[in-house]
Amino acid sequence: MGRRSTLSPVRHVIALDVGGTGMKAALVGPGGELLHQARRPTGRERGPDAVVENILGFAADLRAHGEQHLGGPAAAAGVVVPGIVDEQRGLAAYAANLGWRDVPLRDLLAERLDVPVALGHDVRAGGLAEGRLGAGRGADRYLFVPLGTGIAGAIGIDGRVEAGAHGFAGEIGHIVVRPGATPCPCGQRGCLERFASASAVSQAWAAACGDPDADAADCAKAVASGDPNAVRVWQEAVDALADGLVTALTLLDPRTLIIGGGLAEAGETLFTPLRDAVRQRVTFQKLPEIVPAALGDTAGCLGAGLLAWDLLDTTNGKEETP
Predict the structure, then answer these.
(1) What does pTM read for this prediction?
(2) Which residues touch 19 (CB under 8 Å, ≥6 apart)?
(3) Which of 6, 106, 267, 304 is within CB 3.0–4.6 Å of 78 for a Cys-Cys bond?
């Protein structure tokens, strides 16, 4: 990106999406434009304090990039993290993959950057972006469900995402769909994510085909080629997913159901049987439109940027939000 004139500064915010092993970042314009993107490892192998310092350093470098190439500093910053997030107090309360407990990340970033900072949950932020800028655009009620290492959810209502009373809303991966079955790290048995996440499908297919390196993408390819073992493994995952989704739509009545994450990359190999399985299970419920997520792995960053713009809009009423 070339140097821009300081006479025409481009309004932007800093957006950071912190994962277990990597960080995605962007400078985001007021309409959701990705003006600059970058990635770095979290450095979690050096411990939780090192991860925090890497986040702060990354954010500072992004601020400097904006000053040099966009004509001025960022107006605000948004950071989204996994695990349990106390958005009101600005705490990364708990993240098993990062070893965090009650990290005051919002205040640390605000001190380093000298701008307002919004802290959010990675999946809810991704759902916010899909709702405003992606597959849920125009839907007044939607449910965003990424199928990755685990399964989470974001409940979209009129342009915002519901966090719940304690920040736990949308945890669809821990709906019990197979009572008494596989233990889950959450303490229950038979949770949805133990059967229908990308990691669960990878594990089941590796066992079925005898290749320990086989994964969910390999299973999807085998399904497309008609392998009966793959079809069985895939259908078991689809059935479990449909059971969980019908429970969710019975409670939430979404207009649109957005499926993302690694498993959704299988395209119609997933969506055709999933739509059929959900349709077979509904009785009185209204069948939502079931669509793939549109933003891919940029959703978290875009969501972090939206949180930052929303923060400015809330605090001074002057910023333009998408």
Answers:
(1) 0.90
(2) 42, 82, 122, 300
(3) 304
Say whether 247 sits in a helix, a strand or coil. helix
**Total of domains in the chain:** 2
pLDDT in tens, the chain (322 residues): 444 444 588 999 999 999 888 899 999 999 999 999 999 999 888 988 999 999 999 999 999 999 999 999 999 999 999 888 888 899 998 887 788 889 999 999 999 999 999 999 999 999 999 999 999 999 999 999 999 988 999 999 998 999 988 888 999 999 999 999 999 988 999 999 999 999 999 999 999 999 999 999 999 999 999 999 999 999 999 999 999 999 999 999 999 999 999 999 999 999 999 999 999 999 999 999 999 999 998 999 999 999 999 999 877 654 444 5
Amino acid at 321: T
The two three-digit tokens of residue 280, written as one number: 């077979």
- Bridge partners, 161 (sequence order): 156
Q: Are residues 142 and 221 in the same domain?
A: yes
Locate tokens 């790290």: which residue?
A: 185
Q: Please tell me whether residues 86 and 162 are part of one structural domain.
A: no
The verdict on residue 143 lying in a domain is yes
Neighbours of 279 (CB within 10 A): 12
Cα distance between residue 249 and residue 278, in whole Å: 10
- Domain span at residue 289 reads 138-294
